Amino acid sequence: MPSLDVLLPVAGLALLDTLSPATIGVSLYVLLSGARSVARPLLAYLGTVATFYFALGCALMLGLGFAFEALEGLAASPVLGWAMVVLGGGMLAYALFMPGKPREQRRPASLRTGAMVALGLATGLLEGGTALPYFGAIGIMTTAGLSAAAWVPLLAAYNVVMVLPPLLLYLAHRAFGERLRPRLERWRAKVESGSREALGWIIGIVGFLVLRHGLWLTGLLDGTATFLAGP
Predict the structure, then answer these.
(1) Contact status, residue 81 vs residue 218, Cβ threshold 8 Å
(2) What is the pLDDT of residues 64-99, one digit of tens each?
């Protein structure tokens, strides 16, 4: 079983990943569609998203594992620390000054299973490049040197947590029906208007974590900084 040093940050990043405006926005649209059955299209969409990210995560874990074996010793090098400082600082700066134009929300053209699967794949392909918390969690698991028996269930649990809010919304919709519609309408409007802001927060938080870890690796936090040229 992974140690708490791995489980806690991965769990925190999984909770951060539940804020995906795309997944929540599409789920709210399906719930408010008025269709007789929303379970089938919603589960087809969420299942596709979770499966896509799980497959992506497995590919990255295997690929990064080979890379770390080939570059053994890099994690202890100040080169990695300074690279993380630059990357984290850049992410923070982008989060602070990113353009304010709202992102266009994707909505299903049809609630048929095939259309929802296609939309789930599109969500994964288009959002995968900006899944910063997910990449951070994969990096933590890779550097921890976990075996496949440890990281496969952890990765699966991450993806379950990631789609948990839409599932909870579906259960609430089943329990309260039309009485919940006004609130869901308000939530959908907030998600659509605040998607850019939510992305900025995610980039900023992940950037801060990357920057902090980079400062720790370089020794700047404890006054033992090691520069690229060496002592």
Answers:
(1) yes
(2) 656 555 545 555 556 666 777 787 787 677 767 765
- Does the CA dihedral 85-88-93-96 come out positive or negative? negative
Beta carbons of 61 and 142 less than 8 angstroms apart: yes
Q: How big is the CA angle at 1 (ends 4 and 155), to the nearest 5 degrees?
A: 85
Contact 54, 156 (CB under 8 A): yes
Measured over the CA atoms of residue 93, residue 95, residue 98 and residue 100, the dihedral's sign is negative
How far apart CA 157 and CA 174 sit, in angstroms, is 24
User: What is the distance between the alpha carbons of residues 76 and 98, in angstroms, rounded to a whole number?
Assistant: 33
Helix segments in the chain, DSSP class H? 4-17, 21-31, 39-70, 78-97, 113-127, 132-143, 148-162, 164-176, 181-218
